[in-house]
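A student in our group prepared the protein record below, which I am reviewing. Here is the record exactly as it was handed to me.
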Amino acid sequence: MSIMKYTAAEASAVTNLPLRSVHKLIERRLVRPRRLRTGKSVQRLLSFEQLVYLRLEAEGLRVLPIAVRRDIAKRIEGDSGIDVVCLSGGRAITIQVKVVRNELAEEVKRLRRAQDVIVLDPEIMRGTPVYRGTRIPVEIVADMLNQGASVEEILEGYPALDREKVELATLYLQAFPRRGRPASRPFAKRKAVRTTRHRRRMASPK
């Protein structure tokens, strides 16, 4: 797990920590990502152990003094098998790292699953992320969830999907935001519509 690297957006998606907070923690050097140069740009990549610390931040670690948080981050990053971090002599504060690590591992699995079932193909919907084997935009499913639609309602309109694929929509878009200006999405506020064919009755001759 530790050999894999994650972008700030991926980290935000799986740790439930706002992206702005992830960047802030990087700037304050509580976590120090690896810098990878690709062409003219530099990408900052985080380890799984650093994600574990970010998850702890999301769960309330940020209330501690920054010096203490920096020490916790260093200890977690330095020992991928650490289960518990004890502070103040080992009794006052005990941080359960193992539980958080296991939860985070499941979220990472969901993220990789989302990458398996969602594709970007310039030949399909101009590169809009769609579910593999369909032309169903992931964005419209995520928008419907955000507007309060239930998974069952979405599946009624899109029987080609299943519960897992619907639930992965929001996670995928958070982890892999589209670059540049937001694409025009005229379908975003539309609800799925199921069509029913009716035979047209011929008027009887008078």
